[in-house]
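Each field is listed here:
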Amino acid sequence: MNTSTNHKTMLAIMVTAVFTFSSSVSAHSIHTGGIQTQTNSQALAPFDIIHTKVTTQGNVATFHIAVSGNAGEITPTPIGKLAGSDVFSYVWPLTLNSHAVGFEKDAGILALAITSHPDFDDTPLYDENGDGNKANDGNIWHSHWVVLAPNEKCGPNALGVVDIPKGEKPMLPKTWPGLPLLIDSPNYQPEFRGHDLNVKVRFNNIESLKSANFDGVTAGLRINTSAHSPLLCVKNVFDVASGDLSLPGKTNH
């Protein structure tokens, strides 16, 4: 079985366990190409996906998600500590190999994620709110590459961000934030405008992305009490563009 098929199978198993799809109204007709999605009556409007698309121009890719409400309007409620805190996210799972963005080859399911989490900051190189403090702006929507894999410790058939075992030193992107996870903090700027979220990503070599498949997901993740229990799990899938995480989207289609 090839890498693309493995990714699709793992994602489909996870979503069957944690997500029930319900639709009512057709996606907005103004969106063309990509994955057109019916509205989901069970999802909050800011996370109710109606369109997902990935396009390229030169060596820059644009990742797009549109929702039925105002994208980015809702962020997690802070609890005042790291353990047990929530992360809200807009995610593009891809068949693109993890090595394409600086991780080890075949490390897991690569995904671009736009996240908000007010109880911690995982972008130590950047000052998103411009106040001179680089460690207090996790609540502001920001970008990550993450590598996901099935992890039973996150729940039956659930996914987690891949941990880095103590003492191991895998290949990591230059903007890795220092957490014991396969995560990158590349400072791509998310653009929220009404229903739409767009993120522009510059690639050194964009050819592999052009042949990649994708899907769109909105989800909640949770920080666990121990760094390796695992640290970050997908706990609640709000919506899935394809309905079944089959990754039907094709770049530039």
